[in-house]
Amino acid sequence: MELSVRFRREMDKGLCRDTNPTAAVKMLPTFVRSTPDGTEQGEFLALDLGGSNFRILLVKVQGNGEQKVEMESQTYDIPELVMRGSGSELFDHIADCLADFLEKMGIKDKKLPLGFTFSFPCLQTKLDEIKSSIQKTSAHDQMSSYQSVLMSWTKGFRLSGVEGKDVVSLLRRAIKKRGDFDTDIMAVISDTVGTMMTCGFDDRHCEIGLIVGTGTNACYMEQMRNLQLLDGDEGQMCVNTEWGAFGDDGALEDLRTDIDREIDAGSLNPGKQLFEKMISGMYMGELVRLIMVKMARDKLLFQGNTTPDLLTTGHFSTNYVYTIESDKDEEGLANAEKVLRSMGLNPSAEDCAATRRICQIVSTRAAHLCAATLAAVMRQIRDNKAAEKLRITIGVDGSVYKNHPEFSRRLNKMVRRLVPDCDVRFLQSQHGSGKGAAMVTAVAYRLAAQHAERQRILDTLRLSREQLFEVKRRMTEEMARGLSKQTHDQTSVKMLPTYVRSTPDGTEQGDFLALDLGGSSFRVLLVRLKKEKKQKVDMHQKIYSIDQDTMQGTGEELFDHIVYCISDFLDYMGMRGASLPLGFTFSFPCDQTKLDEGILLKWTKGFKASGCEGKDVVMLLKEAVRRKQKFDLNFVAVVNDTVGTMMTCAYEDPQCELGLIVGTGTNACYMEEMHNIETVEGNEGRMCVNVEWGAFGENGELDDFCTEFDRAVDECSNHPGKQRYEKMISGMYLGEIVRNVLMDFTAKGLLFRGKLSERLKTRGIFETKFLSQIESDRLAMRQVRSILQHLGLTGSTCDDSVLVKEVCSVVARRAAQLCGAGLAALVDKIRQNRNLNQLSITVGVDGTLYKTHPHFSSIMQETLQDLAPQCEVTFLKSEDGSGKGAALITAVACRFKSEKLL
Ligand code: 0WK
Ligand code: 0WK
Ligand code: BGC
Ligand code: BGC
């Protein structure tokens, strides 16, 4: 019992991040997280190396419902020399045996997935590390990043050039060297894991794998939260305890005897695997031999006689212990006599009884030591499950457990005494660990295939540098067509003149109303501009909501609502009945011939109010004001939110000559040379052009970058076929793109276990704000899960969360890159307009997506820098919204007007 508690402490040391490096019991993560889910199928090769036999197996798994498994295997010899030679020789030998096996099976031409049971302590890297490398490769090459590094040889193996190396690449190299066949090495597992999986196939309660054979070891299903070496805290993972090394740090010195020390000193790996050397088949016979030698020398046995056999290491094999210990006394004694005579001894009856007694004591100790550590593992599982009564099955294999009935009987008995409150079953593995290895391989193959499929789909959302250059080139072309009188009507990018000719010069003053319509919130503002610029601009604002019905009702209702808000704002400001100039930030494409007129070309984003398109929104507003009779507007300037944003920022930084919005929608404006704007008279100076790049792609310019998900989002949008570029970038649509990808993944069984929940089918549930939350670095996976839970996607796993995060980042990355490509086209146009080699310029930017997404702005700037390297672009976030800009423009316009009137 005390030993069991001691081992439990060792387990904690191995699991704990800080103590693992010095822990003797390494508790190695195996990355086997799920037991077979019944969907595995196919043909798999399995290698089983490390036990007393080296076996190669062909395992056929039939899926759908009742899984049937057929196996064919062949045992091959591993000569002693090879076990002590160079690593490359061993792997060459394995490759030769594999070739022979495939030959015999007549499947040499097939490239089958292979599971490698390599029964030595190995440090494994994450299976999902596979994930990162699979992107552009077949299942085969993906293995290059799946590593299984041998920590140290044990048992009868001690080869050079393998410890610290990745056994996968060593095997692959050996196979490549032969060149006459190929395989997909999908998984390397410990025989304990293979045994647990093999037994788990028949008994779902099997959560422990135990080997007592040449060596000894155990694995079990541990809670991820206890595996401090790994991030992720949800679900379980199989841990290979490598308990053979228990005591290598001196923890068992009070139990080890001189005989144990003698065995260790004579072993291939002194100081290592001390617990194993007290238990497993490789040493049990030797323990008995050394005890007999000691007793013979002390004249306690064989009248003190010894023989060369008795004095030779390994000449009392562990099999003898089994036979001498047969549960029938006389048979055991007879066997003892037979064995001792075969060693040249002339044993007396007492000698035979003593030998049998020694065998009993040695194997009893082995069984009880094993029971103590097993009990510790069972208590760990019981505590993890907080279960009163633990029902568990232990899958067992190994020649000692199988061929030594007294050992298994004593082990079972002592375990039940040490953990009486557990209902434990021992299930002997009938087919060796090969079946289990095939299952792990099948799961790895399924995971890899599912991953490859997910990446293939996500690749359609990943844009290459060349593609981004092409987007920039096409945007540049469309912008030129938008400015040219000939092609303006055909182009999708309208390059609308805004009649804003100059940025503020600080002389603006007075009180201005401003409306800010079209973004995620509708605001009414009062902006007080004072002459001396340095004094801050006074702004008062109130946010009003515009519900879906108003956005999509009649134009009258919409503008009545706007006027209602203005009058409410004026009351709130105590300015009832005032008459003020108004700057109307109307964030939709408008044709303007002057500042105080804006013909709405089309609604975008969530708006669809009838009777507005083709109308002058200034008139619509004025009519609504007239209908209300509460206040008057003496001048109205219509500006786009990009223009308002540019102006607001230009007030701080005169170099600001572009405005960018990445919010509900996306768009940009910039100061263009008048002589380039063929749709407006005059060639002097500059005018701000509202690019309306959201519409880019309406003539198919983006079709070969569009995915099925983009088409799905467009078809279900308020304005199908319109604003294609916007629908790949802006906040109103990113969540929907993600939701469509997640639905596709789920429908293909690649996510949420293929269960398509009603919630996931609901449009708009995946708000873009979730993308920003899910992608923020400091958000642990469980928080992603809680977002998914909140979205009603209950039952999602940790892996699901990882995937959702990946989809979000791929979709947001593409949006930022596309936006960067559009901006690169703009700033390079300005640079060429001004025949500059190097342009440094500022962009005023606003919009929820740009402001709140953790990575959007940096990815966009990276892309911009890469596609327009001759432009040094500074981004200035607009703190006060476009309202100030609208007021400034109105102020400039009013000054003009009053000057003109003068
Ligand atoms: C049979 C398993 C193999 C494992 C062996 C251990 O298929 O993976 O290594 O049992 O027992 P041994 O052969 O060392 O007695
Ligand atoms: C704030 C500006 C407004 C613009 C909005 C865009 O004041 O004019 O429309 O940003 O961002 P969104 O609110 O759509 O995220
Ligand atoms: C190895 C383990 C293996 C056990 C049983 C030990 O020597 O370190 O990895 O599971 O033998 O074969
Ligand atoms: C509109 C633009 C606006 C942008 C950002 C787009 O849908 O067409 O006029 O600037 O959204 O709000």
UniProtKB/TrEMBL annotation:
InterPro entries: ATPase_NBD, Hexokinase, Hexokinase_BS, Hexokinase_C, Hexokinase_N. Its EC number is 2.7.1.1. One of its GO terms (biological process) is intracellular glucose homeostasis. It is found in: Cytoplasm, Cytosol; Mitochondrion outer membrane. It comes from the Eukaryota. Residues 2-129, 141-200, 455-651 form the Hexokinase N-terminal domain. Residues 207-443, 658-892 form the Hexokinase C-terminal domain. GO terms for molecular function: ATP binding; D-glucose binding; fructokinase activity; glucokinase activity. This is Hexokinase-2. It comes from Cyprinodon variegatus (Sheepshead minnow).
